[in-house]
Amino acid sequence: MINTVRFCILFILLTQAFSVFAGSAKIYVWRNEQGVLVFSDSPQPGAEEVDVKEPNTIKSSIDTSILDIKPKVINNSYQVDIFQPKNNATVRDNTGSVYVSARIKPIFKRGLKIQLYLDNSAYEKPQTHSMFVLRNIDRGEHQIKMSLLDDKGKVIATSSSVTFYMHRTSVNKAN
């Protein structure tokens, strides 16, 4: 049973493979000493030629002048927009945590990195995504901005500065 299935699969595969060469070569089939069917393009004693029908082919030419086959120009004009926190927003968090997110347009490609700046100083190392968490930020006014860096570390886009106000409660102890 298994040998019959293998033979059928082999025959189908070989028939499909040989149909490609039907116009250019002849196919011969015979059984070897073990009784296995052998297909070949070279005749052997006792081999029979296989009648392979010519496959359907389209012989007419196709007008490709209407197709848009010009290569697309990839626009490397990037844009970085910080959307969290909003400009002039007040962030109320007693731990001093601020979540910062940005959008990269047209698309954030592999190899690009983002550098976050807090009060005009680089915040940690550049990273491969546009979401940051600032920790233990002091009370008061702060500015953030982001720069998009290429794979060589060159700045290729910078966001506008965003101002936010950190509000943390404080407890003054009475003496």
Written overview of the protein:
Helices cover 11% and strands 38% of the residues. The protein has 1 helix and 12 strands, in the order H-E-E-E-E-E-E-E-E-E-E-E-E. It is mainly beta and 175 residues long. Strands 5, 7, 8, 10, 11 and 12 form a 6-stranded mixed beta sheet that branches. A 3-stranded antiparallel beta sheet has the order 2-1-3, covered by helices on one side. A 3-stranded antiparallel beta sheet has the order 4-6-9, with no helix packed on it. The relative contact order is 0.15. A hairpin with a 5-residue loop joins strand 10 (140-149) and strand 11 (155-158). The protein is elongated and about 110 Å long. It starts with a helix and ends in an 8-residue tail after the last strand.
Order of helices and strands: HEEEEEEEEEEEE
N-to-C terminal Cα separation, in Å?
Answer: 97 Å
Assign a percent range to the helix content. 10-25%
Number of helices: 1
Radius of gyration: 35 Å
How much of the polypeptide forms β-strand, as a percent range?
A: 35-45%
Mean pLDDT: 79
Class based on secondary structure composition and strand pairing? mainly beta
Characterize the largest beta sheet: strand count, sense, and whether it forms a barrel.
Answer: 6 strands, mixed
pLDDT < 50 runs, ≥5 residues = none
Beta strand count:
12
Rough shape? elongated
Quick gist of this model?
This protein has 175 residues and is mainly beta. 11% of the residues lie in helices and 38% in strands. The strands form three sheets. Strands 5, 7, 8, 10, 11 and 12 form a six-stranded mixed β-sheet that branches. Strands 2-1-3 form a three-stranded antiparallel β-sheet, with helices on one face.
